[in-house]
Each structure stands twice: as C-alpha cells, then as structure tokens.
C-alpha cells in the first residue's frame, strides 16, 4: 500500500512538472501569437488604416489646400504613413513657418501648422509681398494693409536688408507699428522710420532694437521732427 501511494505521488509530481512545461510553452505561443496579430493589425491590416486628415492652425491657408499639398495616402495602414514626408510637403508652403504631423489613432493623420504673420510689406517687382519677423517673404497683398509699414531699400530687397527691417519692426510696441509709414534701409547700419505724421526716427542698425524701441516710446512724448535712437543710451531729438 505504501509503495502504491509512493508511485501515485511520483506520477502526480511528474504530471505537474509536465503540465508546468506545457503551460509555459502555451503561454509563449500565446504571447507570440498576440504579438504577431498586433504587428499584422498595425502594419499590414486595414483595421488601423489612415481614413482621414485633421488640419489645425490654418487661417491664411485653407484646410483643403493643406490636405492637397500634404497628400496623405489614405487607406494605407496608419503606422506606415511617412510622417516626415508629409511634414516636408506641408513645410514647402511659403505661408507655413512650422508644422507638426502625428498619428491620431486609430484612423487619423493630424497636421498642425503655424503660419507666418506679416509684420511689414515690401514691393518686389510688380508684387506687394508680406514680410514676417524673420525677414521671410511669404505672401502677396492686393493693396497695402493700413496697419503694416512698408519697407523701402535703396540697394534692392536683399535677404540681409529685409531681415534687418523685419527685426526693427518686430521690436516696436504694438501701438506704434500702425504709426509707421515705412522703414527705409539705406545700409544695414542706416535704418530710418518714417512716421505717418511726418516725423522721422533715426534707428541706425537693427542691433539693440528692443532697447531702442523702449527709448523711442518715451522720446515720442517730446515735440520734435527727428528722433535719433541709434545710440539708445544717448538719444537725441531735433526740430
């Protein structure tokens, strides 16, 4: 009887060990199967395909224009959509300053754009173009906007002169910008502002523009026809 109990106990232990091995194998197979199914669902199946495009931040651009340029391949698995390629295509639009493209699971490609904002306008050939804070020319205007100054350059609209002019305008307080008729750039060290009331501001270079803007805001309270802030630590005025 004792031997029978011992034999049965041995068989139970052997079965338990075998079941433990089988269970581990089954678990491994289950995990591998789930991983394989997940990979198939994400990378190859139509279950998680790109079905739509969401565009935010478009104001000067239309949503339809962004979608057209983005050329997102719909009905392709969302995981396989080349987001960098989509971003590059949208970034090629002159109005777009920044773009972010992400996957919005389960079926959306989300495009967020930051558009350039004009701080001034410049005449280039027969076109009136918008100029952003970085000196980038990016859009056309049919007529001069009433609230934006013009940029005039004596040596042509070079990249450097436009960048300097944009830096000056961007430093001005918001309430002062509409009072500027135009920014004249003779050289990068000879920049002047012509105010709409006929007064002139000698600015000098774009260096220290923020400090010059602060000084000018105070200085304009004095009666004068010319305000010189080219050396902001020693501003002057004259009739």
UniProtKB/TrEMBL annotation:
GO-annotated biological processes: cell septum assembly; FtsZ-dependent cytokinesis
InterPro entries: Cell_div_FtsQ/DivIB_C (IPR005548), FtsQ (IPR026579), FtsQ_DivIB (IPR050487), POTRA (IPR034746), POTRA_FtsQ_type (IPR013685)
Keywords assigned by UniProt, alphabetized: Cell cycle, Cell division, Cell membrane, Membrane, Transmembrane, Transmembrane helix
Keyword Ligase: no
Cell compartments where the protein resides: Cell membrane; Membrane
Gene Ontology cellular-component annotations: cell division site; plasma membrane
Membrane topology per record: Single-pass type II membrane protein
Keyword presence, Cell division: yes
PROSITE patterns: POTRA (PS51779)
POTRA domain sequence ranges: 48-116
Family matches, as HAMAP family: FtsQ_subfam
Sequence similarity: Belongs to the FtsQ/DivIB family. FtsQ subfamily.
Task of the protein: Essential cell division protein.
PANTHER family: CELL DIVISION PROTEIN DIVIB, CELL DIVISION PROTEIN FTSQ
Protein name: Cell division protein FtsQ
Organism of derivation: Nocardioides marinus
């Amino acid at each position: 009887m004792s031997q029978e109990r011992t034999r049965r106990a041995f068989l139970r232990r052997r079965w338990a060990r075998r079941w433990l091995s089988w269970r581990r194998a089954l678990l491994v197979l289950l995990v591998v199967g789930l991983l394989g199914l997940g990979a198939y669902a994400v990378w190859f199946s139509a279950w998680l395909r790109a079905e739509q495009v969401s565009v935010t931040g478009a104001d000067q651009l239309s949503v339809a224009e962004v979608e057209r340029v983005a050329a997102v391949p719909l009905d392709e698995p969302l995981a396989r959509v080349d987001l960098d390629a989509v971003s590059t295509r949208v970034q090629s639009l002159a109005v777009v300053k920044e773009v972010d493209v992400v996957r919005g699971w389960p079926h959306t490609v989300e495009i967020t754009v930051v558009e350039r904002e004009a701080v001034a306008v410049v005449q280039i050939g027969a076109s009136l173009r918008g100029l952003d804070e970085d000196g980038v020319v990016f859009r056309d205007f049919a007529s001069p906007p009433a609230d934006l100054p013009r940029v005039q350059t004596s040596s042509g609209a070079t990249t450097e002169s436009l960048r300097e002019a944009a830096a000056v305008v961007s430093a001005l307080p918001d309430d002062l910008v509409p009072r500027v008729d135009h920014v004249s750039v003779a050289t990068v060290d000879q920049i002047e502002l012509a105010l709409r009331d006929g007064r002139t501001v000698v600015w000098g270079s774009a260096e220290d523009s923020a400090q010059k803007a602060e000084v000018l805001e105070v200085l304009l309270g004095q009666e004068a026809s010319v305000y010189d802030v080219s050396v902001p630590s020693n501003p002057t005025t004259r009739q």
